[in-house]
UniProtKB/TrEMBL annotation:
Keywords: Coiled coil, Membrane, Mitochondrion, Transmembrane, Transmembrane helix. The keyword Hydrolase does not apply. It comes from the Eukaryota. The chain crosses the membrane at residues 179-198. The lineage of its organism: Eukaryota, Metazoa, Chordata, Craniata, Vertebrata. It is found in: Mitochondrion membrane. This is MCUR1 regulator. The gene is Mcur1.
Length: 199
């Protein structure tokens, strides 16, 4: 261990200032012991340059391993998210097609029921009027008005049902859009998380 001062010069300086040679040597040896003790305490908390370089290499290799793991995880996670999004899109298209088919079917059924109901009501009114009042034209006009009123009410019911079906279709569309938006935001969140970890 090096000493950064000249011990002999310090002994000579002490002798010139009135200390004996033995006293000067005792003082210098005490100073050397104190310095060695202080240096030992300092060196306990310090590392050598070689140890520091080894630790740095270990940290860098660990970071490289983590980066490789992140790349592998990112690729697998993104492929899984893409396949999941494709499945969701296909399911949404199937649901949309089913809803449109159901709406078309309900409309056709309602039109058919309406036409049947109209024809049945007309036949019943004709039969009732013909049997009860064969020559009363005033009652015939009143019955036509009632018949028209009944047809108007039936049309209103059909319009109400069609409006309800449209509302249901819109709610399904909104649910599908919310689901797609949630999926897209989830994918973006995961991608940004990977990007931040990567950087």
């Amino acid at each position: 261990r090096r000493l950064y001062f000249d011990t002999h010069a310090l002994v000579c300086l002490l002798e010139e200032n009135g200390f004996t040679t033995q006293q000067s040597e005792v003082i210098v040896s005490a100073l050397v012991k104190i310095m060695n003790t202080n240096l030992d305490m300092i060196y306990k908390d310090m590392v050598t340059k070689v140890q520091q370089e080894i630790a740095l290499q270990q940290v860098m290799s660990h970071i490289g391993g983590v980066k490789k793991d992140m790349i592998i995880l990112e690729k697998s996670e993104f492929s899984a998210l893409r396949s999941e999004n494709e499945k969701i899109k296909l399911e949404l298209q199937q649901i949309k097609k089913q809803v449109m088919d159901e709406i078309t079917k309900v409309r056709a059924d309602n039109k058919l029921n309406l036409n049947l109901e109209k024809s049945r009501v007309k036949e019943l009114v004709k039969l009732d009027l013909g049997s009860l009042f064969p020559s009363n034209s005033e009652y015939s006009v009143t019955s036509h008005a009632q018949q028209d009123r009944a047809l108007t009410q039936t049309d209103r019911k059909i319009d109400t049902e069609v409006a309800d079906l449209k509302t249901m279709l819109e709610s399904h569309k909104l649910d599908n859009i919310k689901y797609l938006a949630g999926s897209v935001f989830t994918c973006l969140t995961v991608a940004l998380g990977f990007y931040r970890l990567w950087i």
